[in-house]
Amino acid sequence: MAQLTEIEQYVIDKVKEKRIQAGLTQAVLSVAMDLNPKFVGNVERSKTDDKYNINHLKKIAEILGCSIREFFPE
């Protein structure tokens, strides 16, 4: 497994923050994204090579009702 970059960790942390604020579990968000129920958990734990791509982030923003820009630093 490769080390996460600073921006990758930032995105993961922001998605997690927004997910928790929305009251969604990792599994619920994964299924809403039409992915394996363990996907979000794998990304957040960084124990696998699973990462969010731009399409994942677009879908997450739609599910959480926010802008994709909220997942990135200024």
List keywords for this structure.
single chain; 74 residues; mainly alpha; 434 Repressor (Amino-terminal Domain); 4 helices; 55% helix
Overall mean pLDDT: 96
Biggest sheet record: none
CATH architecture: Orthogonal Bundle
Number of strands: 0
In whole angstroms, the N-to-C terminal distance is 28 Å
Number of domains: 1
Rg result: 11 Å
- What is the CATH C-level name? Mainly Alpha
Write down the overall geometry.
globular
Strand content: under 5%
Structural class: mainly alpha
The ordered string of helix (H) and strand (E) elements is: HHHH
Oligomer: single chain
- Figure out the total of helices: 4
User: How is the CATH topology named?
Assistant: 434 Repressor (Amino-terminal Domain)
In the predicted model, the low-confidence regions spanning at least 5 consecutive residues are: none
> What is the CATH homologous superfamily assignment?
lambda repressor-like DNA-binding domains
Q: Percentage of helical residues?
A: 55-70%
Description:
The protein has helices spanning 6-21, 26-32, 39-45, 54-64. With 74 residues, it is mainly α. The radius of gyration is 11 Å and the shape is globular. The mean pLDDT is 96.
